[in-house]
Amino acid sequence: MKKISIVFLFLSSLNLYGNDSLFISANTDYANENYISSCEKYEEILSRNLESVELFYNLGNSYFKLDEIHKAIYNYERALKINQDFTDAKENIELCKLQLIDKIDEMPELFFIKIFKEIQNIFSLERWILITLISIWLSVILLIYNKFFSKKNNLAYILLLISFTLLFFSNSIYNKNKNIRPAIIYSSVIEVMSAPSEESTKLFNLHIGTKVNINDQIENWVNIKLANGKKGWVAINHLKEI
User: Fold this and answer.
1) What does DSSP say about strands 181-185 and 189-193: parallel, antiparallel, or unpaired?
2) How far is CA 35 from CA 24, 38, 61, 85, 118, in A?
3) Which domain holds residue 56?
4) Which residues, listed in sequence order, are joined to residue 181 by a DSSP beta bridge?
5) In the prediction, which pLDDT does 209 show?
6) What pLDDT does 225 receive?
7) At the N or C end, where does the chain have fewer CB atoms within 10 A?
8) Residue 39 is part of a domain; what is its CATH number?
9) What is the mean pLDDT of residues 47-69?
10) Mean pLDDT (whole number) for 83-98
11) Terminus-to-terminus CA distance in the chain, angstroms?
12) Distances in Å between the alpha carbon of 225 and those of 106, 206, 231?
């Protein structure tokens, strides 16, 4: 796995956990191919409520080396939740998918929806909000300037229109993130049912490591949706939410 290298591990140790001997020790264990120990130490750091892209990525690498692919995917996804532009984590997830039983093809989207999503993904939600706020403040400043100095130009109104457009983008991204509850299947094989009951009709099976999105929850049952559009109900204890 080309992206799983000790170079990133040691560079990252100079970052957030530069003074954390446990993090450095975990990196050393990984470099010495003692992956069980590195996993235990990374997990111990997480138990202290210390999280970072590097930590999740390194933990994912360790689990990959132990062939615990579902745990590797789970931690790469957690890294992407912090930094959606983390290319190495994305590439490693694709490599992990090659080892999964379930091969899920994404449902094709209409071209304008695809373009809209690509524009949304240019920046993170936080960055879109920052750009929106800057645009709004510039609009206000220009409007005040025109008012006090009796200037006539349309730049302020154009900028205000852009601000409303950016506000729409930020709101849509926020709603999308709020409504999405991604999870990874942690059981070897599960039955997806037509209703939140074991007596309902079995629709299909899913296997360990597959990513799903949780749409709804009724007590201990969740309604899930796959990338190919398939839906159904499963017991929540089979999943680990990202």
Assistant:
1) unpaired
2) 14, 5, 9, 26, 37
3) 6-97
4) 214
5) 97
6) 95
7) N
8) 1.25.40.10
9) 94
10) 93
11) 23
12) 11, 12, 4
Domain termination site, one of 179, 200, 224 = 179
Query: Does residue 228 register a pLDDT over 80?
Result: yes
Q: Is residue 68 part of a domain?
A: yes
Beta-carbon neighbour count of residue 24 at 10 Å?
17
How far from 211 is each of 162, 181, 240, CA to CA, in Å? Answer: 36, 11, 10
What pLDDT sits at residue 142? 87
Give residue 25's identity as a one-letter amino acid code: S
Helix intervals (H) in the chain:
6-12, 21-31, 35-47, 53-65, 69-82, 87-97, 111-120, 125-149, 155-179
> How do residues 3-46 score in pLDDT, each as one tens digit?
555 445 545 544 444 447 899 999 999 999 999 999 999 999 99
Place of tokens 């409303």: 164
Q: Is the model more confident about 141 or about 212?
A: 212
What's the rounded Cα separation, in Å, for the pair 139 and 135? 6
Q: Are residues 159 and 187 in the same domain?
A: no
